[in-house]
Specification:
The complex is a heterodimer of chains A (about 280) and B (about 325). Chain A is of the alpha/beta class and about 280 residues long. Chain A has helices at about 5, 65-80, 95-105, 125-135, 155-165, 220-225, 265-280, and strands at about 35, 40, 50, 55, 60-65, 85-90, 110-115, 140-145, 170-180, 180-190, 195-200, 205, 230-235, 245-250, 260. Chain A has 2 domains: about 5-235, HUPs (Rossmann fold); about 255-285, no CATH class. Chain B starts with a strand and ends with a helix. Chain B is an alpha/beta fold and about 325 residues long. In chain B, about 55% of the residues are buried. The chains are: A alpha/beta (about 280), B alpha/beta (about 325). Chains A and B meet through helix 4, helix 5, strand 9, strand 11 and strand 14 of A and helix 3, helix 4, strand 7, strand 8 and strand 9 of B.
């Protein structure tokens, strides 16, 4: 059975070498080529010291932005189910290569690193323009991002990428089913509500944390990753220059809105003091 | 400053953060000698616009179309671009809801503009309007200013402004006007389907007077028993921040925060919870908040009435013992 002509009826961009075509379910073999945007952020327990409008990077560890790790996992699962290529895309200084390698060790096929020492100063639109320029050079069906980053926390990258690439999008996604050249998605709303959405491919999705259980890299994965390609590019070579639309003037430790009474002493003493307070001052127990 | 506020409704019901954002707009308008237009988007929403017109605004705008009955990002971006081009505001404000996160940055980008999202406040400094938002999961605040010509786009977090401060219209009612918008079915690429809730939860945390909540500080699922012992001694329910439920260590129905339950118990005891904003919005209305955390700079202490800085693994057994004594 020749399935290339059948699938050509759909406007999916797919790799030309498509031959896998099970007789029972011709769509199952339709590969989905995916770019996952991942960001490297300060480690969760890193002590932050402020320097102007960013932090001192010299003494702290970095890790993959947790929401992005769910997006990567979802991409790897879609690849395992449908075939296709998973490309990781990351913008940042040399240090982000460590996070890229972790993604390759988990199973991504190749990576694009947009080297930029000044990335922390980019506004959401500026960063999205750089990423969009890199995505536009690839033939892909799907772009995945995490919901937001644990550092800037703009939460705009996926939506802006869709706008810049003129693709449909959906956000806060808890489930993806690819079938017949389109997706059925489960989108999270507030207060325990969800909505089903149908979305054509290609598209951009931002993934909600908790959609899946993230895998660890295996030793074999780490070894295999050493041979995988990391293409390096820059904002300049992608031809992106943009005026910022906003500027972070400074960051600072927030001023407290409530006066906290700190209870001190040994754990036993502090616990006893707390119970006293809750009983006689707050009168809640 | 000419301000346009875009409110949010679903199936004719308000998202109440809309009114908090309208309060923010009234305060910015007052600080900048500005004016406010407020828009409601959907199908059959003229009645909602009448309600907006009773507030202290210059004009209420009805943005209606058959294809806007259900929210889609394409539909909202296309019509709101037309509304903005017609109204020519300097500043467009939104409530920072899941829906706004889904379309507003794209709408701003369609006009070549940027958006400052999830703001918790603003300041007027000289001629400059400074927006305050959080970074690093609430560990720092950031002062952000817009660069270049408007319209500028910003959204305000739930709880950032008090809806009860909303000013009524002094002359009774502002004019209500329909904005003519064009939208074609083929321009809407995603199709919204059914709304649903997951299977009914077996516990209703919103009704629990005493809640013991755990966060990342609990480290491993086998340690949860220590927190459950505290909850049992107190006679309260166990709950958690999102990462704990994402890991599957506690069921999703026990999750407190923007994507889970919103609670306001008599006592909220936060164990090893740093206080990321997504969690805090779900519990900051609690009468008394106690936080136990090893990091004295953890944002949870900003809203705590009582705090203990220390190792939760030492403090949990001590709390269990003391609660047992107190209740015994």
């Amino acid at each position: 059975m020749e399935c290339g002509s059948l699938t050509a009826a759909f406007t999916l961009q797919k790799s030309p070498g498509l031959t896998a075509c099970p007789v029972t379910d011709i769509w199952k073999g339709t590969p989905v080529n995916i770019i996952v945007c991942i960001k490297q952020v300060p480690a969760k327990d890193a002590p932050l010291s402020i320097a102007g409008n960013w932090i001192k990077e010299s003494d702290i560890g970095f890790e993959m932005n947790e929401p992005d790790s769910y997006a990567l996992e979802e991409a790897l699962r879609l690849k395992e189910k449908h075939g296709g290529e998973v490309i990781v895309l990351s913008l940042g200084p040399e240090r982000v290569k460590q996070t890229i390698k972790e993604a390759l060790a988990k199973g991504a096929d190749r990576a694009i690193h947009i080297a930029d020492d000044n990335f922390s100063q980019l506004d959401p639109l500026g960063a999205a323009k750089v990423l969009a320029a890199a995505v536009a050079k690839e033939k892909i069906d799907l772009v995945l991002t995490g919901l937001q980053s644990d550092d800037h926390g703009f939460g705009q990258t996926g939506v802006l990428l869709a706008g810049l690439l003129n693709l449909p999008h959906a956000t806060i996604i808890m489930q993806i089913e690819v079938q017949d050249g389109k997706m059925k998605l489960k989108r999270e709303l507030e207060a325990g509500w969800f909505q089903s959405i149908e979305c054509p491919l290609p598209a951009v999705l931002s993934i909600q944390s908790g959609i899946n259980k993230v895998r660890y890299a295996t030793l074999k994965g780490i070894m295999v990753a050493k041979k995988k390609e990391i293409a390096t590019t820059t904002r300049e070579s992608l031809g992106v220059s943009s005026e910022p639309t906003q500027k972070i003037e400074k960051i600072y430790i927030p001023t407290k809105t409530k006066k906290t009474e700190f209870l001190t002493g040994t754990p036993k003493e502090a616990a006893a003091k707390l119970v006293e307070k809750l009983k006689f001052e707050a009168r809640v127990i | 400053m000419k301000i346009l506020v875009v409110t949010e409704q679903r199936q004719g019901k308000w998202n109440n953060t809309s009114f908090e954002t309208l309060v923010a707009a009234q305060q910015i308008a007052s600080a900048t000698s500005g004016s406010i237009r407020v828009a409601v988007v959907g199908k059959g929403v003229a009645g909602l616009a009448e309600e907006l017109a009773t507030k202290n605004v210059g004009e209420a705008l009805v943005v209606e179309h058959d294809l806007l009955e259900n929210y889609t990002p394409d539909g909202y971006c296309i019509v709101l671009k037309q509304v903005i081009e017609a109204a020519k505001p300097d500043l467009v404000l939104f409530p920072h809801t899941y829906q706004v996160r889904d379309f507003a940055p794209r709408l701003a980008a369609m006009l070549g503009k940027g958006m400052v999202g999830d703001c918790i406040g603003f300041r007027k400094e000289g001629d400059e309007l400074v927006f305050v938002r959080q970074m690093f999961q609430g560990k720092t605040a950031a002062d952000v200013t817009f660069v270049g010509a408007g319209p500028w786009f910003a959204s305000f977090q739930t709880g950032a402004f008090r809806a009860d401060l909303l000013e009524a219209n002094a002359s009774g009612k502002a004019p209500v006007n329909a904005v003519k918008v064009e939208l074609k079915a083929e321009d809407i690429r995603t199709r919204p389907l059914e709304l649903f809730k997951e299977a009914k939860a077996s516990v209703d945390l919103t009704q629990a007077p005493l809640i013991v909540a755990i966060g990342r500080g609990i480290k491993a699922p086998e340690n949860i028993a220590l927190a459950e012992a505290v909850a049992e001694a107190l006679g309260g329910e166990i709950a958690a921040s999102r990462p704990i439920c994402d890991e599957g260590w506690l069921p999703m129905e026990r999750q407190i925060g923007s994507s889970g339950q919103t609670v306001a118990p008599k006592l909220y005891l936060a164990l090893g919870i740093s206080g990321a904003i997504q969690h805090v919005v779900g519990m900051k209305g609690s009468r008394t908040i106690v936080a136990v955390n090893k990091d004295q700079n953890a944002p949870i202490f900003e809203i705590a009435d009582y705090g203990i800085v220390g190792d939760i693994f030492e403090i949990m057994p001590a709390l269990t013992e003391e609660f047992q004594k107190a209740k015994g």
